[in-house]
Hints:
With 285 residues, the protein is α/β, with parallel strands linked by helices. 43% of the residues lie in helices and 20% in strands. The protein has a single domain, classed as Rossmann fold (3-Layer(aba) Sandwich). The protein is built from 12 helices and 9 strands. The strands form 2 sheets. A 7-stranded mixed beta sheet has the order 3-2-1-4-5-9-6, with helices on both faces. Helix 5 links the parallel strand 1 and strand 2.
Amino acid sequence: MSVTAQTIQTASDENTPNLTAIKSRMKATWEDGDYARFATYMQPGAIKILEDWKIPASSQLLDIGCGTGQTAIPAALSGAHVTGIDIAANLIDHARERALFDDVDVRFDVGDAADLPYDDAQFDAIISLIGAIFAPQYQHVADELARVCKPGGRLHMANWTPEGFAGCMFRCVARYTSPPAGIVSPALWGVEEVIHERLGNNFTDFELERKFYPLWAYPFDTSELVEYFRQHFGPVKRAFDSINVTQQRSLRAEMKDICTAHNIATDGSTEIRSEYLNVSVRRKK
């Protein structure tokens, strides 16, 4: 897939969105459903990706879009000094409870990836596992990633690709609930050319590799998985809640087809094969 900077800019500037309303809607979307429960089946894969990033022990680490602490808490247990931030207040509350239960010291903040409440060059390493990609104002986000990262520090991201399972889901849901004018697909963060365009001014040593999300399995079939998404995953729950019964039936069928097409299990359960772009870059000195 080739996406030029001009294409991205045109898509973003076609209309001037009401960012306050958009961010309020996004916050409400991620606070809907039960993401803590939804993320349970993705936790093993999150830990594997974190381990592959090889964050040095004792690093000052920022986890952007930290959700309920799927990567922040394991990183802290491995010796990093971790701060996690997410736009959804209820997810941060859950993350704090998990940290208390695990007896680990992690700072969790409610905040916006495009306006981080941290000092310049505060962190040795920054991570974002399927998190920062959902924030609007993508270039503001990219610039904030650079601002709070120490010179020579590393940024690691796992970003869904347009061609993978999640990218297909994004397009499917968007056909029923159009995104606000001027907001581009989060899956563009999974395009190599776009990563260079957004991060190239401030980062170097680009290591980009397409991989499949590890260990993403459910003990039920694809029909049940669609219902699981509908009940617990905020963006999908909101989509179903906003359309009529006929549209719901059609959306459910399309989602099942996507799940089936990306299911590699053969025993009646579901194991999703979902492509992401693994991003590792170094902050310029």
